[in-house]
Amino acid sequence: MYWSLIIYAGIITFITRFSMIFLLKKDILNNKAKKILSFVPAAIFPAIIFPPIFLDDAGTVDLESNPKILAAIIAIVVGYFSKNIIATIFAGLISYWFLIFFYF
Amino acid sequence: MNNKLKTLVKGVLDVSPLMIPVFPFGIIYGVIGMELGFSAYMTLGASIIIFAGASQIVLLQLFSGGASSLVILSSVGAVNSRHLLYGAVLSEYLSSLKLTWKIILSYVMVDQAFAVSNVYFKNNKDNNNKHYHLLGAGFTCWTIWQISTIVGIVLGSVIPEELGLSFTISLTFLALLIDDFRKFKNIIVMLVSGVIATIGYNIIPFKAYIIFAALSALIFAALLTLTDLEKK
């Protein structure tokens, strides 16, 4: 890892936070633009979530001997009903440990 | 207590409950930084310089996977694009402030601080010191984030790798989406993004699968939104 990369990433992050506050006198984004930007987390996070869950170390899709898929499903169910971030993470992690120690 | 201090304290108190999930997230970030073989200084340095959890984890993950700087930085930019929305929404309350204030407040405008201060600004338009609310909320997030990163760095050197803590990256991001699970369109957008990233992982060169999948899903979301508005 290079410090320069961290600094560039810091600058990019800062610009996305600063630009609108600096440029706009009042909120000019229309409802359409806001609606689309509200999809940003749903559009980005699954791209980070899916590959490490579904792919094995060799990069091929592993659906049979894969405790991560089951653990992720349990986390989704817990998240859906509890709406609690911590409960979701721990439900997934504990069921993952349970599965790797007892079944896989 | 004068009004500035009162508003600042209100910001600290309002954002505090939201710090409960941030603390373990920071620990996870610190642990993962250590597990992926980064130095303690760089792991903490990123928390101070970037100060954005999701971006920092994407940075670590892509760098350790061998992605190029261009791909890493554009992925970080994509993850951060949601801040454009926050800035636009808050701009009408902050436009009269001095540049220094705008710079400081931008640095601490993270998801949780935005969430509570946006509500406060709407309900307290007449308070001339309302920006102190965002200052209090933002620096509370900052302090918690740095402390939890340090705890994670310390724990990361003692936690065994067999516990599969890298899986917590997926779980943490998944937990950040719990509000989207109930919205049908958001579920479709999530599936588009996830499936493209999984298939693209081997096909798309330069580890650009995150940015490619994210942009595809965002374009898909835009089409969904625009066709939906035309109907009305």
Task: Kindly describe this structure.
The complex is a heterodimer of chains A (104) and B (232). With 104 residues, chain A is mostly helical. Chain A is built from five helices and no strands. In chain A, helix 4 (67-82) packs antiparallel against helix 5 (85-102). The radius of gyration of chain A is 19 Å and the shape is elongated. The model of chain A has no long low-confidence stretch (mean pLDDT 89). Chain B is mainly alpha-helical. Chain B has twelve helices and no strands. Helices cover 76% and strands 0% of the residues of chain B. Chain B is globular, with a radius of gyration of 19 Å. The model of chain B has no long low-confidence stretch (mean pLDDT 90). In chain B, helix 1 (3-15) packs across helix 9 (131-156) and helix 6 (82-94) packs parallel to helix 8. At the A-B interface, helix 1, helix 2, helix 3, helix 4 and helix 5 of A face helix 2, helix 3, helix 4, helix 5 and helix 6 of B.
Could you tell me the strand content of chain A as a percent range?
under 5%
Number of strands of chain B: 0
Helix count of chain A, per DSSP? 5
Helix amount of chain B: over 70%
Helix-and-strand structural type of chain B: mainly alpha
Order of helices and strands of chain A: HHHHH
Spatial gap, N to C terminus of chain A: 34 Å
Number of β-strand runs of chain A: 0
Roughly how many Å apart are the termini of chain B?
51 Å
Main pleated sheet of chain A: none
The radius of gyration over CA of chain B amounts to 19 Å
| Chain pair with largest interface | A-B, 68 and 96 residues
Task: Characterize the biggest β-sheet of chain B.
Answer: none
What is the general shape of chain A? elongated
Question: What oligomeric state do these chains adopt?
Answer: heterodimer
Rg calc of chain A = 19 Å
Helical proportion of chain A, percent range: over 70%
